[in-house]
Amino acid sequence: QPQLEESGGGLVQPGGSLKLSCVASGHTLNYYAIGWFRRAPGKEREGVSCIGDHGGATNYVDSVKGRFTISRDNAKNTVYLQMNSLKPEDTGVYYCARYPYWECGTSWRSDGRDFDSWGQGTQVSVFS
Fold first, then answer.
1. CA 18, 105, 38 angle in degrees (round to 5)?
2. Whose CA is closest to 38, among 100, 85, 108?
3. Pair 49, 70: CB distance under 8 Å
4. pLDDT tens digits, 69-81
C-alpha cells in the first residue's frame, strides 16, 4: 500500500482559497480512485470529493459543489483539491485516501471505511 501525504492546508479568511495536494510514495495511485475527506471539530469524518482513476469521473458533496475542484496528475502520483470561496464551516483536518478500485463507488459519501490507505491529514482553518 502507498504512503500518502497531504499538504497545502493553512489559515485563510472566508472567501479565500487553498489548494491541497496528496502525494503518494511507495506505490502508484494509477488505477485507483482517490478521495478527500475532512473531520471538523466535534464531528464525524465526512467525504468531500472523489475522483476516478483517470480523472474522468469526479464527485462532490453538495456543500462544496461549485467551490471545490478535485483533479489528479498521475505522472506526478498526485491528487489535488482546489478550494475556493472557503467558508468557516470548511474548517477541519483534510485527509486523502485510496479506494481499492478504479471508480469511486458510494463509500466516499460516508466515512470512507472501505478506503485502504490514508494520509496523516492537513489542517484547514477558515475564520476572520
1. 30
2. 108
3. yes
4. 999 999 999 999 9
